[in-house]
Amino acid sequence: MKITDNKQYKESLHKVFSLMNKGESNLTDTEAREIKVISKAIEYYEDYILKLMPMPVTINAIVQKKAEEMEISQKQLADMFGMTAPKLSQILNGKRQPDISFLKAVHQKLGIDGNFILEMV
Which of 16, 43, 45, 90 is placed for a possible disulfide with 3 were both Cys, Cβ 3.0 to 4.6 Å? Predict the structure, then answer.
């Protein structure tokens, strides 16, 4: 098995977690082998593919990347952050400085490290 993109990566993680949630004693031999095969593919993808992808270096880029990963629209992200879509758009496009409520939402709703946020502002 080979994972070639983020969608397959997420699906593979979901599959492994689903199988693992059954409990080790409840797995069939086929399911146990499936976990091993998928886990090796996940490990390869994380070690060799994800490491080659450049990481975003700005708060805006990270927020946009997280929204892509979560497969949510900018409007949905704005709702999640408790702000209007136009305000979020202005911040993400660099036309407006991030305010405290935006930075707090980035930390709380997206799980972005507070130290990283402080270093970027």
Answer: 45
Q: pLDDT tens digits, residue range 43-82?
A: 988 888 777 655 557 888 889 888 988 899 999 999 999 9
CA atoms within 13 A on the CB side of 14: 6
Q: What is the 3-state secondary structure (H, E, C) of the chain?
A: CCCCCHHHHHHHHHHHHHHHHCCHHHCCHHHHHHHHHHHHHHHHHHHHHHHHCCCCCCHHHHHHHHHHHHCCCHHHHHHHHCCCHHHHHHHHCCCCCCCHHHHHHHHHHHCCCHHHHHHHC
CA–centroid distance for 5 within its chain:
13
* Cβ atoms 14, 51 nearer than 8 A: no
Structural contact between residues 74 and 67, judged by C-beta atoms closer than 8 angstroms? yes
